[in-house]
Model the fold of this input.
Amino acid sequence: MKSRYSLWKLIKEGLTGHSSWGAAWRDAEPQPSYDTIIIGGGGHGLATAYYLAKNHGLRNIAVLEKGWIGGGNTGRNTTVIRSNYYYPESARLYDLSVNLYEKLHKELNYNVMFSQRGIVTIAHSRHDMEAAARWVGAMNSNGVATRMLSKDDIARRVPFLDVSATARYPVYGGFAQEKAGTARHDAVAWGYARAADSLGVDIIQNCEVTGFRRTSDGRVTGVETSRGPIGCNKVGLAVAGSSTVLANMAGFRLPVTSYALQAFVSEPLKPVIDTVVLSLATGTYVSQSDKGGLVIGGALDHYPSYAQRGNMPVARNVLGAIAEQYPALARVRFLRQWAGIVDVVPDSSPIIGRTPVPGLYINCGWGTGGFKAIPAGGTLLAHHIATGQPHRLAAPFSLDRFTTGALIDEAAASGIAH
Ligand SMILES: Cc1cc2nc3c(=O)[nH]c(=O)nc-3n(C[C@H](O)[C@H](O)[C@H](O)COP(=O)(O)OP(=O)(O)OC[C@H]3O[C@@H](n4cnc5c(N)ncnc54)[C@H](O)[C@@H]3O)c2cc1C
Done:
């Protein structure tokens, strides 16, 4: 068991030259076999391994990551955490996650910097306002507290937003979920890694899975990797934008398309925005990090890609829309831009549970919104792997829904374009 992080530990280390912190997790060597292998060292893979050990008492587990942990979308996202979805199935899933996030720093003994600064969604037309009212009604009846905001409420809450009569994107009002917020993305990956490692999970970086070993009747018995073959009884797949690549290796197809999604960070500013602000018409959103940078996101690139950089037309549209909405910030300089490869599903809802390959389970399809779902995604995939049965919250999100037609179409319902 690792030593606990605490104020006393910090003071002691400060007085003794920071000499005995120790590594946050071991650099494990691959063993010949494990009970369970999790492919993908992003938030969902690490959380799955942690909850397998913590909630189900399993110990002989490895997480295999082709690069470094958190180097995929988990370390590239804009960190918005919210549960303001339309359908009850989604509200229950994402609200579980927000509730777990609220306690995560204690659970993991790691400061994930979850800051519940709220999210304000802006309506730019009468029609947006009607959609917002319908949305707020559904969320409140699902037990997710949200409230409508008038134009004046928004002007007070977001002082730099152009709410004038001549604004390029006029502001009619909007709605807010107050318990939404942001967290530090790397810290979520590192916190789960440290906690999983202390429960005996082997975290193996620079270990790319290149194939699956299967019996003649199809059951998975191990994986081929860049560091040699590793046997196992069960495999959990949590590789986001690489899901179709791994599914192809295992011999089945997924209704997933991989796109680049870009993020932008400005030079640090004094505090100007103390909430997350999302614009319905432009699909853009902005928050301000604790370091002062404006963190901005928007739409997907227009074509499928595995290039983690993004294209110029989308960058221009996103930054142009932000400059129109916040004219006072239009001359702020940008420091960084990047993209991650997100796994987009036709109904914009995740896939959690068994696959057509016996012994192989999957967690994918979070698209542009899976950071907020890491604690829930890990909990639910771990439950299915450990018990062989879907958790009741995960059952509606099975892969079967694409054959039964029981889609949970958040793309249409809550205006999530992707
Ligand atoms: C720019 C951007 C902004 C976003 N903003 C938000 C947001 O504000 N809020 C939100 O909730 N979500 C957001 N998301 C989405 C969110 O980041 C993802 O849904 C979430 O991080 C997915 O986590 P994951 O663990 O499934 O995937 P990842 O973090 O991508 O991890 C998958 C891992 O699998 C590894 N892998 C792939 N192939 C192999 C292989 N063959 N062998 C071994 N390992 C492999 C990868 O290297 C990677 O580390 C955003 C995404 C992006 C790109």
Summary: The two ends are 41 Å apart (CA to CA). The chain has a mean pLDDT of 96.
